[in-house]
């Protein structure tokens, strides 16, 4: 590889380093890792509710099992506690994670973030009772605990913990005790003033914002930041751009999904949570692009839809080495794990395979998008883990849509067709390619 | 037991490497090692809990951007950190990776 290439990959690597070590990004990323089981638990509740307990769509539709419908409340409760409470969980986790990064020993920053968040949201709702509007006080409206307020929650958590850390480090604000006072007592007072000041600042800001502008902070954050981002990602160009960036990093051998996670996770996990809620409530499903959409149509067999690459190698690959790596990679590939493909074949820094590796997910994503828009495939309504094998993930995530399964099969066929010609080229450029490989591997290590 | 700690994005893609390294270690005989993989984000906690047992940390090439940060975390305990060779990782060459891990571990202060 030339010097220019080295410079280029070096630059991308430092971008990767910056992204992965920026503390706020790290806190958000880490929090969503911890949050995943919550979403999966919610998905479980939605699945059980719809496939078993629902008197129209589930097992309970058979008169023999109709008693099951009585139990719907259980799954409804789990659904509310998980999917409808995701923002609250995220706020606490981000607070804890950022607190830890900032050097706090206790979990208190998580609480600090939660208190601050609750202090900026309205706790009254207007309700129409017998034709007249009544103000109901002391309630937490659903829009403040579900994904609709996710971005407000993320911002408040980050800002409040930063403020808290800043004030905690000020000597003047720590209460000094005589030496005779036990140290545990002293530390219990240590965070007193920083907490009071932090919450006062945040609550005052929320209050002043509403007074001065006439709109609530949550409305502003939703309309100015969250909704534009959501609509950008819900459009085909937005999601393709995100995928393109991820693939680009993979080509130089860096985990691309890790790079885009900070933006992908809140948006795509938010959108699937919204879909799951709508599905459980029997409402119309709003979002096309969700986390399962990404996994089902754009990540089959792993990043780059490498299921197509593996099949193409089995069909036409002539290099013994490539075939043996493909064999080794088939097992993990079933669970959408493809590092052996990327580093073994390799795709990394391979100018021939980089092309289909980047364009295949863009094309299969487009196929999935069109199939969903025209209603051939159903929208995803259940979150499934990314390691769920193809076909099963398409079927489960869409609540049993065979159209989605067929669409995924079309995507797989398309991926094979796209990779095939490049395998033919790779067969012919044997020596050249292998020369590159040795050189690049020595350089990277 | 001494621990050989591998880390990648989710700790899953490296599990194949782990099983190959275990096999290689069994074949080699000698001292027993606990070889396992975790997500890169969990290294800090892992070190807090087991820094006295971890003898080497090896990162998957896809998270090599985490090397500097990991080195900083491992330095106080004198644990060597390295990124696994792309080729060895891609082909899940347990023997050579184990060899490398033991070699690094012997440098542990």
TrEMBL record, chain B:
Modified residues (Phosphocysteine): 8
SUPFAM superfamilies in the cross-refs: PTS system IIB component-like (SSF52794)
GO molecular function, one term: kinase activity
GO biological process: phosphoenolpyruvate-dependent sugar phosphotransferase system
KW Kinase (keyword) present: yes
Keyword set includes Ribosomal protein: no
Keywords, sorted A to Z: Kinase, Phosphoprotein, Phosphotransferase system, Sugar transport, Transferase, Transport
Domain PTS EIIB type-3: 1-109
PANTHER family: PTS SYSTEM N,N'-DIACETYLCHITOBIOSE-SPECIFIC EIIB COMPONENT
Protein name per Swiss-Prot or TrEMBL: PTS sugar transporter subunit IIB
Organism: Terribacillus saccharophilus
